Amino acid sequence: MSRTSQHVVVGERTLELSNLKKVLYRDAGIIKAEVVQYYLEVAPTLLRYVRDRPLSMIRYPDGLDGERFFQKNRPDWAPPWIEHALLGEDSPVDYMFAGEAAVLVWLANLACLELHPWHARRPHYDRPDYLVFDLDPPDDGLYGRVVELALALREHLERHGYHPFVKTTGGKGCHILAPIEPRWTIDEVFEAAKALADPFVGRQRQATLRLEKKARGDRILIDIYRNRASQTIVAAYSLRGRPGAPVSMPLRWDRFAEVVDPGAFTIRTVLDHLRAEGDAWEPLFAYAAVLHTHRSVVASVPGAVEPGRTHKTPEQLAEYAARRDFALTAEPPAQLLGGAGNAFVVHRHRATRLHYDLRLERDGVLRSWAVPKGLPPRPGIKRLAIAVEEHPLAYLDFEGDIPKGEYGGGRMWVFARGKYETTKQKKNGFYFRLHGGALSGDYRIHHTHDNHWLLERVDAPQIDWLYDRVEPMLAEAASEPPDAEDYLYELKWDGIRALIALDEGMLTIRSRSGRDVTRLFPELADPTAFGAACGLFDGEVVCLDEEGRPDFARVISRLHRAGDLAVDLGRSTSPVYCYLFDCLYLDGRAVVQEPLHRRRAWLEDALRLGTSYRMSRVVEDGRAFFDAIRRMGLEGIMAKRRDSAYLPGRRGRDWLKIKVRHTADCLILGYTKGSGVREDTFGALHLGYFDHGVLLYRGKVGSGFSEGGLEEVRAALAPLQRVQRPVEPPPDDDATTTWVEPALVCEVEYASLTEGGTLREPVFRRLRPDLAP
Questions:
Q1: DSSP-assigned letter for residue 228
Q2: Choosing from 167, 172, 419, 492, which is the catalytic residue?
Q3: What is the dihedral sign for C-alpha 67, 71, 75, 80?
């Protein structure tokens, strides 16, 4: 094959890529271009686990069918902008570092399918920052045994004060990592791993520490020898040189417990998983613990105060104490405590004006900056940060109301918390990395003048919540309010579901199908309705009738108005409002994992009164509320667990929709020939739905059509492409049916489902042009 090449720009780098059509995974038909694209797209997350770590690679220049080789040394022809360091005493190796996406793309172009980073980061090359346990099973193909042993090992590690994380290896085993502070040599770390593994293996018949395959038998090797000098493991999110292009995939423990086939995580599935569920390892280094062999007290959760080793003097908190009357405020006193030197907290502070407080532990206190607009969401955005008085370490856990009239009076929330590290010290500032369950990222803070600093984010997040396609969370149907006290209830608004993205003074409204409908609702295109710099909010766009009831027909009419004059006329005759009920992202971090009641509190705090945006109110007595809604003739109510997380694009029991009568959104699959007064339109509509990608039949509906509704549906059906019958078995009237592409969605009311899954007593309600098929 002749060599072909092209130039691409990745960040600030221009790269030459060659032979992009070369097949690297013949069994799956994966070419080099797909490998390059994967590493480019996964870079924001993968870089967290390889940045500042010397890299080794396994290269497959001719794909899996050709020769492979392990490479450590930087090639002489590597670009000069790739960072490297000569490490090792006897036989020094010139290791490369991957600090930006361009490096990953350059390596992928060399067919470096596998990335193997050191267990330690610069400058502490001899100080690992995690313990690793490599579970390697025999060739019996029973992954359930691996899962069972890994879950047992997790409990064992937790009893010793560690917070373990798990990933598939991309092969038949798994890796369990327990993050530790980088304070001990590799030999000390190995001894700690051995001290953990010996008693565990002594109690587990199916586990062994014997490396020799003959000595293992059918037992699973717990390879603690990965904690030795020069040893590595494959990086999180790295491809493997195995058929199918599997990926070494970090998982939450509950998801790992369900894994049957680790080979399901491949180059073609991992990115969708990341977008839907996020990075399971994001808080990894927030849980860095002290080696159990070097401590007398079990380490606590991120943010907890540990024995100190930093310099501190009483004068550091003098200004803090002078500004407060501790007889009136519940804030912690100006007391010096020991600290590990690496804690951080971000507070959301509703004082005279809403702002955020960034606090980093230094020299026994919390060095603090007020950040009016919150943390920057991505590179390229700079935030003013005003240095304020230093705070005591006990402020890491403070949350509550500061009395009005007191300094900083107002509500204080813990917005994010964890551990941090200073990655680079500069003349007028420093770079730092946050490790937290709620917030992880790389930042730079730069002193400009007086107490003014500039804060900016250095790394790009994997998901851009403000611009990427994000699907709203969905609810399961229920027949009545649940008999539980942990639910909040609100009206089921009869309108158009929308996600509202606010970013740096710009506002975008997207429907559930992802369509940008901002121009159609100019009264909602008002970024001043929010007291936030950026955010993603979930709500329903509605029109109200004269009695204040949602009017679906009027809001759908607004959706169909395309021209400027029609939009202006609709705004004056049928004004819309947006009732907000949730918040997915706010001022620099995703909040989907926060409990619902906290997301709502932050949403309400970010919403200004007197605009076309309103808060969807909640009540706690679901049965009384449902009875009232039924008497008023409204559609129904929503029940949501007050502590539930937000699951984008997923449907779950944490959200329930309770309708006065059942309704379903169905695909229109075809229509029967009409007769009598319907001779010029149709007789009935055939309905269907997708279940895990399979199209199933829902029956047909022939009632509920007004004269105008018949014509509306006929006009919508006319341009659709005719197709072969898409369902089995054929219905009785197949001979008189015209089948069409499933491109239209309609809402149907029904009494119940038959045993065959079709609708009983269906009644057509309306077309749903706001929903994607």
A1: S
A2: 492
A3: positive
